[in-house]
């Protein structure tokens, strides 16, 4: 019963905070999914200059996809590449991963 309540809470989160994005697995057809995407800009110093590395933090339902390093996600015409191992949350209901901006489409 607790697990069902938890899944309902997660579904509510995706309904209110999620957006439609395109998941592009390597060697397979793209799929539209609902994901919660945070796109902060992380400035960091390099000598006297400052650079911006844009990393998206993505959360999506585990039943939708099985992401891997090297797969892509397209958010608002911006293409991101998954660069670290995606992790399932403790409930195994959601994937969480980070992807770095490759280019604007």
Account of the protein in words:
There is one protein chain. The chain has 105 residues and is α+β, with helices and mostly antiparallel strands. The chain has one domain: Thrombin, subunit H (Beta Barrel). It has one helix and eight strands, in the order H-E-E-E-E-E-E-E-E. A six-stranded antiparallel beta barrel has the order 1-2-4-8-6-5. Strand 1 (19-24) and strand 2 form a beta hairpin.
Which SSEs are present, and which pair or pack?
Layout: H1 2-17, E1 19-24, E2 31-38, E3 41-46, E4 49-61, E5 72-75, E6 78-82, E7 87-88, E8 94-104
Antiparallel strand pairs: 1-2, 1-5, 2-4, 3-4, 4-8, 5-6, 6-8, 7-8
CATH class call: Mainly Beta
Strand content: over 45%
What's the architecture in CATH terms?
Beta Barrel
How many DSSP E strands? Answer: 8
Largest beta-sheet characterization: 6 strands, antiparallel, barrel
Class based on secondary structure composition and strand pairing? alpha+beta
**N-to-C series of helices and strands:** HEEEEEEEE
CATH topology: Thrombin, subunit H
Tally of discrete structural domains = 1
Strand order of the largest sheet: 1-2-4-8-6-5
What is the overall pLDDT average?
Answer: 86
Rough outline: globular
Helicity, in percent?
10-25%
Tally the helices: what do you get? 1
C-alpha Rg (nearest Å): 15 Å
Q: Unreliable stretches, pLDDT < 50, 5 or more residues? A: none
Distance between the termini: 44 Å
